[in-house]
């Protein structure tokens, strides 16, 4: 009977570990979902900022070195 109790105890410990592992996996999946939402938002924001800063008439981009400072 001692062997049966030992097996039951080991089985119970494995079930507890499996339960904690499932909880951890769920938490990690939630983190991944949130991170992907943040990445998607940032990609859209970068695209919007890129369109905002692009020249509208198709001319070459201007360089800040070509502009004179205000005190000249």
Summarize the amount of helix as a percent range: over 70%
How far apart are the termini? 96 Å
Tally of helical runs: 1
Quaternary state of this entry equals single chain
Low-confidence parts: none
User: What class would the helix/strand composition place it in?
Assistant: mainly alpha
- Work out the strand percent: under 5%
* Average pLDDT, all residues: 88
Outline type: rod-shaped
Total number of strands: 0
**What is the succession of H and E elements?**
H
Largest sheet: none
Q: In angstroms, what is the radius of gyration?
A: 30 Å
Which key terms come to mind for this protein?
1 helix; 72 residues
Q: Can you give a write-up of this model?
A:
- With 72 residues, this protein is mostly helical.
- The protein is 72% helix and 0% strand.
- It starts with a helix and ends in a 19-residue tail after the last helix.
- The mean pLDDT is 88.
Short description:
The protein is rod-shaped, with a radius of gyration of 30 Å. The model has no long low-confidence stretch (mean pLDDT 88).
List the helices and strands and how they pair.
Layout: H1 2-53
